[in-house]
């Protein structure tokens, strides 16, 4: 019997090739979307689960409360780890690491830039389960001058046999003590080499102190809690710990430490200063993705249902004969479910091939490492099986029940019609659901597009056009003067400035500031940027009160000068003026401010217009500019765009002469700014993709429903044509019903889309107002696409010869 069912099912598929193709195509697209979304969700949920101490590993984090509010950081002071070992001896596994973005690595005469560098102590590989291929990290990482390379980096650096030493920068010589496996992509800690912690010196960090509790920089501390210790029991002990070790620090800041579970790190955006290429996810994002996947699958299944019911009349005689010969309703239901299962199976196989083909592009786009390893991923196998069963039952059950319930006498007399008003209502509801989801996604896409356009057009408070930034490795006074003298000789280089970083960059010191006359009782958070006298002209900052630094002031702004000779000045932004309680920028000129940078008290000489230091997700915060030549690690240049190529070659040539041991690298400032919104661009692209998929599958479903209606109304159309109806009036007969359905879908979609996008826009401190035109465009586009689909099928019905449809009457 099963063999007979298979043969007949295949004949039906071949007989109705167009319908079969549409069914398979729609389900394949829907299932491909579901598989990709499943891989995205499970990828994020699997973060750090390879760690042997996954359930007992914690990161020590800190919260600092000041007049500005609470600032939460993952980075902790360098003395913390040893102090914790001393005060909590019952917790033996405590490790600390320091993260470095990139360093110049030399092996003999070869040199290259290497990213993601860790300095770690001897317990690092005891706490974390990264695979050690050779060497003894516990012994070697406790000694200075030792390094473990990942397999991939070792292949690049140790090309010549017998090479056992490397050099990072011009400062640290390291012996290669062993090789470790590359960290999994699902690790929140990524590294290419692990350097022994004793190799980390203040000189390597540009003079940043390693023994001060008030300096966090990029140190991270992790512990493994024994099963006998409750994490909550450590909270009250941290208060005494802070009091003991931070008694000499700024008492206007209420400092607290707490534990963050390893399993929460990937899903938390609370803590700043995370290591390197660290990326967050949010559970709500995964839930939204999951719901979106279900909706797309539902749209695909609805498409199948509409097409199956459209074929009902063609199958009616087969059903009537089977029932006359004794077929039971259950047998017919099973038969139709079997047909659905075959189509679903084909769709699953196609979707697996499509997913495998698309994964390289998806991974580049999402910067993830998704893999379709069916044999080694039991969760994926269970998901695929569940997907097949769900799609089969959801797509096939309703048509199977309807078709198997035909009255054989009515069927054989050609007296079946639409399966009652309830059946027509169900199909219309399904179409409304399809286009409701499609319109929500279209509205969302238009609003995201408006926000992205706002990002690109909103003034940032500084100039970003035709500016390049170049990292500078070692900026001695001689280097700085030599490079400036060479580059200023080129008229295509309009301005050149040395600083810690561009206006919108992560290159600033987060510290505290307060009016010296008021003391530390009103201490606020501030971002401090070391800049030179040319910074204002290079980046186009606008001075609203006071003046800029002079050359003489910059020369005296040097902590290495004897006491009494060094002198500093501050320039603040308008946000800092408001934070300190002044209404007019002129009122702060001449006031003295104290910052956390070596407790420096200095006069405010100028106020600049507010400019964005971070992305538009965040409000403009207080910023303080001061001259600090020892921290000029970036050169910013405004160049003539019409001569850009030749100017870059000129800069590179002179760079290589001043810094012969370092690579020349540069970035466009506008591209650096665009990188701040990379995740938002991905969101925009995902909206466009899923909106397109929903519309496409929805139109397939619409085609199915119009096919059903056309088959049901063939005689009515024939009579109307005999009575003189035009082709246009017959097309309108079909179209007006769907216009009504799409308008109903829009009425349901509009409030849903408004609520969802309003919540999304709350992530931005600077955002657009939702425009009503986005809703009009969405409903207009949906109507246009749907009417094109309806018109194509209704035109075929309208031009059918009435003699063919009325010959049995």
UniProtKB/TrEMBL annotation:
The protein's GO terms of the molecular function aspect are: transmembrane transporter activity
Span of domain MacB-like periplasmic core: 20-233
| Cellular localisation | Cell membrane
Broad class of the protein's primary localization: membrane
**InterPro entries in alphabetical order:** ABC3_permease_C, MacB_PCD, Macrolide_Exporter_MacB
Q: Which UniProt keywords apply?
A: Cell membrane, Membrane, Transmembrane, Transmembrane helix
TM ranges: 21-43, 286-313, 334-359, 379-408, 429-449, 686-706, 738-758, 770-790
Q: Which residues form the ABC3 transporter permease C-terminal domain?
A: 291-408, 689-801
Is Transmembrane there in the keyword field? Answer: yes
Gene Ontology CC annotations of this record: plasma membrane
User: What's its membrane topology?
Assistant: Multi-pass membrane protein
Q: Extract the Pfam families matched here.
A: FtsX, MacB_PCD
* Name assigned to this protein: FtsX-like permease family protein
Q: Which organism is it from?
A: Chryseolinea serpens
């Amino acid at each position: 019997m099963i063999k007979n069912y298979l043969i007949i099912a295949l004949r039906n598929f071949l007989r109705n090739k167009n319908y079969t193709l549409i069914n398979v195509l729609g389900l394949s697209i829907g299932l491909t979307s579901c598989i990709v979304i499943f891989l995205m969700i499970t990828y994020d949920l699997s973060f750090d689960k390879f760690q042997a101490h996954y359930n007992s590993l914690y990161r020590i984090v800190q919260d600092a409360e000041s007049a500005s509010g609470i600032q939460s950081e993952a980075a902790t002071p360098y003395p913390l780890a040893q102090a914790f070992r001393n005060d909590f001896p019952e917790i033996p596994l405590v490790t600390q690491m320091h993260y470095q973005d990139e360093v110049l690595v030399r092996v003999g005469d070869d040199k290259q830039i290497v990213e993601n560098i860790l300095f770690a102590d001897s317990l690092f590989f005891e706490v974390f389960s990264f695979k050690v291929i050779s060497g003894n990290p516990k012994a070697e990482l406790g000694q200075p001058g030792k390094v473990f390379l990942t397999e991939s980096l070792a292949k690049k650096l140790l090309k010549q046999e017998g090479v056992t030493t490397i050099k990072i920068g011009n400062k640290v010589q390291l012996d290669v003590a062993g090789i470790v496996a590359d960290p999994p992509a699902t690790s929140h800690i990524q590294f290419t080499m692990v350097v022994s912690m004793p190799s980390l010196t203040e000189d390597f960090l540009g003079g940043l102190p390693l023994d001060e509790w008030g300096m966090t920089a990029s140190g991270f501390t992790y512990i493994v809690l024994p099963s006998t210790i409750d994490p909550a029991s450590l909270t009250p002990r941290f208060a005494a710990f802070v009091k003991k070790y931070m008694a000499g620090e700024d008492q206007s800041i209420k400092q607290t430490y707490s534990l963050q579970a390893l399993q929460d790190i990937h899903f938390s955006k609370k803590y700043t200063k995370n290591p390197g290429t660290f990326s967050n996810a949010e559970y709500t994002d995964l839930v939204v993705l999951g719901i979106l996947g279900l909706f797309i699958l539902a749209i695909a299944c609805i498409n199948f249902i509409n097409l199956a019911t459209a074929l009902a009349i063609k199958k009616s005689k087969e059903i009537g004969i089977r029932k006359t010969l004794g077929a039971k309703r259950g047998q017919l239901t099973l038969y139709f479910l079997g047909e659905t299962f075959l189509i679903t199976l084909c769709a699953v196989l196609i979707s697996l091939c499509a997913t495998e083909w698309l994964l390289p592009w998806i991974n580049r786009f999402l910067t993830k490492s998704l893999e379709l390893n069916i044999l080694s991923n039991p969760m994926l196998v269970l998901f695929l099986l569940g997907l097949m069963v769900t799609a089969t039952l959801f797509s096939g059950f309703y048509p199977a029940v309807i078709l198997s319930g035909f009255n054989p006498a009515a069927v054989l007399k050609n007296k079946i019609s639409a399966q009652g008003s309830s059946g027509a209502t169900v199909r219309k509801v399904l179409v409304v659901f399809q286009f409701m989801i499609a319109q929500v996604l279209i509205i969302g896409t238009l609003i995201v597009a408006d926000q992205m356009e706002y990002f690109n057009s909103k003034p940032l408070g500084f100039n970003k056009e035709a500016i390049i930034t170049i990292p500078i490795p070692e900026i001695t006074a001689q280097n700085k003067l030599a490079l400036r003298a060479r580059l200023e000789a080129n008229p295509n280089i309009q301005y050149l400035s040395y600083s810690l970083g561009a206006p919108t960059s992560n290159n600033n010191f987060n510290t505290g500031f307060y009016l010296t006359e008021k003391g530390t009782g009103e201490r606020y958070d501030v971002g401090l940027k070391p800049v030179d006298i040319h910074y204002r002209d290079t980046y186009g900052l606008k001075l609203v009160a006071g003046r800029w630094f002079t050359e003489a002031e910059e020369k005296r702004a040097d902590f290495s000068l004897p006491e009494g000779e060094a002198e500093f000045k501050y320039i603040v932004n308008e946000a800092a003026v408001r934070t300190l309680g002044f209404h007019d920028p002129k009122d702060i000129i001449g006031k003295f401010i104290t910052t956390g940078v070596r407790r420096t008290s200095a006069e405010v000489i100028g106020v600049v217009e507010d400019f964005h230091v971070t992305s538009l997700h965040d409000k403009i915060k207080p910023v303080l500019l001061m001259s600090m030549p020892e921290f000029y690690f970036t050169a910013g240049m405004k160049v003539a765009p019409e001569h850009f190529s030749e100017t870059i070659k000129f800069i590179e040539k002179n760079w290589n002469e001043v810094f012969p041991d370092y690579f020349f690298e540069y970035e466009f400032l506008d591209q650096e700014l665009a990188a701040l919104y990379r995740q938002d661009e991905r969101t925009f692209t995902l909206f466009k993709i899923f909106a397109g998929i929903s519309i496409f599958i929805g139109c397939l479903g619409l085609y199915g429903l119009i096919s059903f209606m056309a088959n049901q109304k063939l005689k009515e159309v024939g009579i109307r044509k005999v009575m003189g109806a035009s082709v246009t009036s017959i097309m309108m007969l079909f179209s007006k019903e769907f216009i009504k359905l799409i308008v109903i879908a829009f009425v349901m979609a509009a409030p849903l889309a408004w609520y969802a996008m309003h919540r999304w826009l709350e992530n931005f401190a600077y955002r657009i107002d939702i425009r009503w035109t986005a809703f009009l465009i969405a409903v207009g586009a949906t109507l246009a696409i749907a009417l094109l689909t309806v018109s194509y099928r209704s035109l075929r019905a309208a031009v059918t010869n009435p003699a063919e449809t009325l010959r049995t009457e």
